[in-house]
Design brief:
Radius of gyration of chain B: 16 Å
Distance between the termini of chain A: 18 Å
Shape of chain B: globular
Oligomer: heterodimer
Strand content of chain B: under 5%
Helix content of chain B: over 70%
Number of helices of chain A: 13
Structural class of chain B: mainly alpha
Helix content of chain A: 10-25%
Largest sheet of chain A: 7 strands, mixed
Number of domains of chain B: 1
Largest sheet of chain B: none
Number of strands of chain A: 17
Distance between the termini of chain B: 23 Å
Order of helices and strands of chain A: EHEHHHEHHHHEHEEEEHEEEEHEEEHEEH
């Protein structure tokens, strides 16, 4: 019998396993565990590579995976997930966990390391304000943030955003900025006092991307390959910690198993899992069960284990908007080949006027295919290409996240066929807020128009949470204690985003990881008696 | 000219490379499966009767007509980007701000003209 069995190998499962390993407790991880295709790695800049090579295999693929968003029968997914080498992240998701979606688009992963294989790499701490409604305070998470920072290697800076992301004394220096991002930051410093009074703060992101070499991993070499190649050496992926834990013998990794449900048997919990591809059922016994299959996956397991086809659980995801910005002075400039393709800057708007705290990630457009942008320009085809060619070096995009009130959460249920049903709610976003943000960016040298701002479809914020919320005193099924233990299900713990009772307007990955470690620490203590 | 040649020429004004033609045809077969017989017939009629597919696609994109033509033109944009010899259509490698602004202006004017032509073509197709 396993002492601790963890279902899922994403950010939360690995953080829990790491914490347990730190305390000498060996865990078993049950996972489907799809891995990236075995292909030769590209070690040069994307632009140099594509100048010399036919990039069909890299960008489109023999099965035309890269054309996913052109196929009318399929729902649009983020461009990064369409790249042939990145498709393993969402491989067979609909087949392994069918979902019927209404006004919501769910992204699921059965890859080793989960959705983090394609993450934006932003790691922001949840502060007291973000933890409103949680039975946990900031101080309880700090030691785990610090442990994770040492494990991962985080670049960034303690700057104007420190009140929002916390003081971090172990950061590597921040990454080099692109020309567009530098212009924003320059203009921000020029108008800082005025902007700060309005509640506007701009600074460097905290990224799980190395700016200095560390433990055999290379520092960022600005190759623009972020959208195309999995497992870049400079970016941290949970699967690396997993590999290390397996090598050290701290984790037994049972790959190729899809957990279906659990039941109790005397002093044990028995997890029923289906092996892939034989589709045979196997049982795994454990003393403590840790649910780390993601907010949706863990909730599905909880519902399936109770054969509950009635209950509707809340499902939170950040609402998001995409702002394209143009920097007129950079129109016609040459492409910045030496660039980092993910977040360059973070924008925080702590607005008293709108009574909200929003946060945006400002990204360069140097990594995605130009063809991805084609439909966003309104001109004739050849003119669209010219526009892309000459304006792209002057373009940046901000993905702005907004918090969603729990009453506007989507609902999740399980039907008798074993499929999930998710119904999203329409969340209104103030037009005045959009106009004000556009005005703020004008003072930062970046221009856009309200009609160009696009709403990200419900669910594609991909910050899922809230299905099995932690509360001080759980009274209902599908609620958890402060330590993630499910109500009426002793020794079953949820450690992923499912336990977050609310979502702040920021990437919750780092907080999920720290919280998973906190719960794992508690599990370790209970095991030691 | 067949469909692939016509679409490619309407954007790049050069003959289509062999490898790209073969990829286009394979991808087209996959993407076409999401369309009704009626839509496919409408698309074939447009491709056979119209030479300036760029103009027709522009109007189609904005009026939601001929959805398959819009997709196939976009498909060609995706495929051509993967070939080194066509990368210069997508990427600006020199600092050319005047050229950039100039193209912005000229492209806007050209698009207006193409739009007008596209409407005429659309009207003719309906007849």
């Amino acid at each position: 019998m396993n002492e601790v069995l963890i279902i899922g190998s994403g950010i939360s499962g690995i953080s829990a396993a790491l914490c347990l390993a730190d305390q000498g407790i060996r865990t078993c991880i049950l996972d489907v565990g799809f891995e990236p295709p075995q292909q030769e790695k590209i070690n040069i800049n994307l632009y140099d590579f594509c100048d010399k090579n036919d990039c069909f295999d890299l960008m489109i693929g023999e099965d035309f995976e890269g054309l996913h968003n052109l196929d009318r029968r399929k729902k649009n997914i983020p461009a990064k997930l369409t790249a042939p080498r990145m498709r393993f992240v969402i491989d067979r998701a609909q087949e392994l966990s069918p979902v019927k979606e209404t006004n919501f688009q769910l992204i699921q992963s059965f890859a080793k390391g989960g959705l983090a294989n394609a993450w934006g790499a932003g790691l922001m701490r949840y502060k007291s304000r973000d933890l409103k409604g949680f039975p946990v305070d900031e101080g309880e998470l700090v030691p785990y943030y610090e442990r994770l920072t040492k494990e991962i290697g985080i670049s960034g800076e303690n700057d104007d955003l420190t009140p929002y992301f916390g003081q971090d004394d172990f950061l590597q220096r921040p990454l080099e900025l692109s020309a567009n991002a530098s212009e924003i930051l320059r203009n921000y410093f020029k108008n800082r006092k005025k902007l700060n009074k309005q509640g506007v703060f701009v600074g460097r992101p905290r990224l799980s991307v190395l700016s200095e070499e560390r433990e055999g991993r290379r520092s960022c070499s600005y190759t623009n390959l972020e959208f195309w190649q999995p497992h870049l050496s400079c970016i941290y992926y949970p699967s690396w910690t997993l590999d290390r834990l397996i090598d050290r013998g701290d984790v037994i990794y049972r790959k190729g198993f899809l957990a279906k449900s659990w039941y109790r048997q005397e002093n044990a919990i028995v997890v029923v899992a289906e092996s892939i591809p034989e589709r045979k059922r196997y049982s795994f016994k454990c003393r403590k069960l840790v649910l780390a299959a993601g907010a949706v996956g863990s909730a599905k397991l909880a519902l399936a284990s109770r054969k509950d086809y009635q209950s509707k659980l809340p499902l939170l995801d950040n609402s998001a908007l995409q702002f394209p910005f143009i920097f007129p002075r950079r129109i016609g400039k040459k492409i910045e080949k030496h660039s980092f393709g993910l977040t360059q800057l973070i924008f925080v708007y702590d607005s008293k006027k709108h009574d909200c705290l929003t946060q945006g990630s400002i990204l360069e457009m140097t990594s995605p295919a130009r063809a991805e942008l084609f439909a966003s320009f309104p001109f004739a085809a050849a003119d669209n290409l010219r526009m892309i060619k000459y304006t792209l070096p002057a373009l940046a995009v901000m993905q702005l996240y907004l918090s969603v009130p729990p009453e506007k959460s989507a609902s999740l249920s399980l039907n008798k066929t074993g499929a999930l049903e998710i119904v999203g709610e329409k969340v209104e976003i103030s037009k005045e807020l959009i106009r004000d943000i556009i005005k703020i960016f004008r003072s930062l040298g970046a221009y856009t128009f309200p009609f160009l701002v696009q709403r990200v479809p419900n669910g594609l914020g991909i910050h899922y949470a809230g299905t099995l919320p932690m509360v001080k005193l759980p009274k209902k099924l599908y609620q958890c204690t402060k330590f993630g233990e499910l109500f009426a299900e002793p020794h079953v713990y949820a450690v992923d985003g499912s336990v977050f009772p609310s979502l702040s307007a920021k990437n919750h990955a780092f907080a999920v990881m720290a919280n998973a470690m906190r719960i794992a620490d508690h599990i370790a203590k209970t095991l030691r008696g | 000219m067949d469909e692939a040649e016509k679409i490619f020429y309407s954007i790049f004004k050069t003959p289509i490379p062999l490898s790209l033609r073969e990829r286009f045809q394979r991808a087209s077969m996959i993407l076409s499966t999401g369309y009704t017989q009626e839509e496919l017939a409408e698309h074939d009629r447009a491709v056979n009767r119209v030479n300036d597919l760029e103009a027709l696609e522009l109007v189609a994109r904005h009026t939601k007509k001929f959805p398959l033509l819009v997709v196939k033109l976009h498909l060609m944009i995706y495929l051509a980007e993967t070939l080194p010899e066509y990368r210069s259509f997508y990427i600006n490698r020199n600092d050319t701000p005047y050229k950039g602004w100039g193209f912005l202006f000229l492209s806007s004017v050209r698009t207006i003209l193409k739009f007008l032509k596209g409407f005429l073509l659309l009207a003719r197709l309906k007849i």
